[in-house]
Structure formats: structure tokens, C-alpha cells
Automatic annotation (TrEMBL):
Domain of life: Bacteria
Protein name: EAL domain-containing protein
Domain EAL span(s) in chain numbering: 24-279
Length: 293
């Protein structure tokens, strides 16, 4: 690769560039092979209604099952989420499997309102994304409101031609729920909440984990929650790990939460069992037990 940059360019001798290139190549290869062999699968993490303590939805998170059975998350194939071909392949694969799993849980009578997927800007800008999503929903006999699409706020930064906004508007008009992921960490301005078709914000886990560490952090979380509420948005706190964090988020009126305190991301099979327990709690026991730890 470095050779392409030409003679006499010092990049030729920069080992870190070669390493970076090699790392990317490996990520693409890993993803390509995994998709080809059916080893790219979502794991699922429950999202709870904090006041009723019931599961509202689950988030699908991409995982690769290695040939030795070990499971790796996006950190091991991060670059692939930023290269058009593999990003699209990952997101489409996860969309299809997640909707299929969700439809199966619904058909078993399990009580769950939505499935959340993460979409990269490359995927959203791809040809016929709206049609693809709506077809996948119809194919699984699901309604648009069963699907939540999580995007990071930064995708609006390179949306000069409004293509992404337009796609999200069409999905939103069709009834699909749009969530801003990692809210508060990006470069988006608050006007995005007003100008873009967003129904839900996910407060980034760095704010949740920082609760109690500084007065400033706590004030930001409170402000994000009340901003979301006054704009009539659903608010999900990400990365709740302790009872103290849960108590705080409930007290400030955050509606939903997810995190290791409830469950780590688990396989479709484990999630099916988890939902069975959560959907049909023992009499008097409204607190679903913690799984997947
Ligand atoms: P995200 O969408 O913000 O997902 C939340 C991440 O936090 C997940 O990491 C999840 O496993 C982790 N997490 C959940 N609860 C806790 C907690 O209590 N404590 C801590 N420390 N972490 C928690 P994961 O699965 O490694 O995913 C990382 C990121 O990769 C995701 O962040 C998302 O941006 C991206 N990603 C995952 N799946 C997909 C996908 O199918 N497509 C695309 N485009 N991106 C994906
Ligand atoms: Mg329900
Ligand atoms: Mg997400
Ligand atoms: Mg997030």
C-alpha cells in the first residue's frame, strides 16, 4: 500500500502506517469470512422501563463467533464499520437476523415492544435503505414501531446534502423509531434535536458511570433528562452498572435504562429464556432476575 504513495515519501518507512493498514485489512477479512460462514450474529441486551422494572425492548449488538467458539465484539472489527462494503454488510446482516429473532419472540407471546439496531451512516446512505428496512419488517410481519434505529449524533455533521436527514425522516414518517446514540459525546448541537426526526436519546454511558464523581457531571445528566422530557423524547440511560446509578437515573425521571446491572449482551437463545422469565414473572415478583452475568 505504502508503495502506491510513491518514491521518496517517508511513509514508505513508517511501520505504524503499515500496521494500521494491516489491522484494517484483517478487520475486513474477519467480517467477510464471518458473514459468509454465518458467524456474524447479534447478541442482545435488554432495555428496561425503570419505573415498572419491565423489559421494553432489546438492543442488537454485532458479534463474531470465532471458529474456536469464542465471541468477539465490534472492538475486534471496528474498522469494518467504517468501510462502505463491510459496514453495509454488517448492518444488513444484523438487521435481518435481529428482526427474525424479534419476530420469533413475539410469536411465542413474549412481551417486548421493540428491537433496536445500530446503523452506520454508510448504511443509511446506501441505496434503497428505506425500502430495505420496510421490506424486512413486512417480511417478518412486524410493524415499523417495532424497530428502533440508533444513530450517533455525528452522522448529521457530514450531511450537507441532507441525504441522511431525508432517509431518517422517511423512516420516521413510516413509524420507525429513531434514537440518538451516545448522546452528549458528539459534536452535534442541541438544534439537532429540534431539526431532525429524533424520537429518543440514549445518554452516553460515560455520563452514567461518572455520576457522583463530579457535581458538573451530575448536573449534565439532570439537564439531559429534563431536556429530553420537555422535547417529549424517550430517554434511555446507557451503561447502568450499579444500584446507585439506577436509583439516581430513576429519581431524575429517566424513563429507560440498560446496562450490566440488568444484563450483559447475551445470545438469542439466552435472550429467549430471559424474556420468558421477564414476561411471566412469578406472582408478586415483578423484578426480573439478572441474567448473563
Ligand atoms: P453502542 O450502540 O453505544 O452500544 C453500547 C455498548 O456498551 C455495547 O458495546 C455494550 O455491550 C456496552 N455496554 C452495555 N452495557 C454496559 C455497561 O453497563 N457497562 C459497560 N462498560 N458497557 C456496557 P459493544 O457491543 O462492544 O458495541 C460497541 C459499539 O459498536 C456500539 O456502541 C455501536 O456503536 C457499535 N455497534 C455494535 N453493533 C453494531 C452494528 O450492528 N452496526 C453498527 N453500525 N455498529 C454497531
Ligand atoms: Mg410491554
Ligand atoms: Mg447503540
Ligand atoms: Mg451508546
Amino acid at each position: 500500500h505504502a508503495k502506491q504513495t510513491g518514491r521518496g515519501v517517508c511513509e514508505t518507512y513508517n511501520p505504524s502506517l503499515t500496521e494500521a493498514f494491516e489491522e484494517k485489512r484483517q478487520a475486513f477479512e474477519l467480517v467477510k469470512e464471518a458473514i459468509h460462514e454465518g458467524r456474524l450474529l447479534p447478541h442482545y441486551q435488554p432495555i428496561f422501563d425503570l419505573s415498572s422494572q419491565r423489559i421494553k425492548g432489546v438492543e442488537a449488538l454485532a458479534r463474531i463467533q470465532n471458529k474456536d467458539g469464542s465471541i468477539v465484539g465490534p472492538a475486534k472489527f471496528w474498522h469494518a464499520l467504517f468501510e462502505p462494503k463491510s459496514a453495509l454488510a454488517v448492518d444488513e446482516t444484523i438487521l435481518d437476523i435481529a428482526l427474525r429473532d424479534f419476530a420469533e419472540w413475539k410469536s411465542k407471546g413474549l412481551d417486548i415492544d421493540f428491537i433496536s439496531i445500530n446503523a452506520s451512516s454508510l448504511c443509511i446512505q446506501s441505496m434503497d435503505y428505506v425500502e430495505r428496512v420496510l421490506e424486512a419488517l413486512a417480511h417478518n410481519n412486524l410493524q415499523p414501531h417495532h424497530l428502533k434505529i440508533e444513530v450517533v449524533e455525528n452522522i448529521f455533521l457530514d450531511d450537507a446534502d441532507s441525504k441522511i436527514t431525508h432517509v431518517l425522516e422517511r423512516l420516521s414518517e413510516a413509524g420507525v423509531i429513531i434514537a440518538l446514540d451516545d448522546f452528549g459525546t458528539g459534536y452535534a448541537s442541541l438544534s439537532h434535536l429540534r431539526d431532525y426526526p429524533v424520537n429518543c436519546i440514549k445518554i452516553d454511558q460515560s455520563f452514567v458511570s461518572g455520576l457522583g464523581e463530579s457535581a458538573g457531571n451530575t448536573a449534565i445528566v439532570q439537564a439531559l433528562v429534563s431536556l429530553g422530557k420537555s422535547l417529549n423524547l424517550d430517554i434511555i440511560a446507557e451503561g447502568i452498572e450499579t444500584q446507585g446509578q439506577l436509583d439516581f437515573m430513576s429519581a431524575v425521571g429517566c424513563t429507560f435504562g440498560q446496562g450490566y446491572l440488568f444484563s450483559k449482551p447475551i445470545s438469542a437463545h439466552q435472550m429467549s429464556d430471559y424474556l420468558k422469565q421477564a414476561s411471566f414473572p412469578l406472582l408478586g415478583d415483578t423484578n426480573p432476575s439478572v441474567a448473563g452475568k
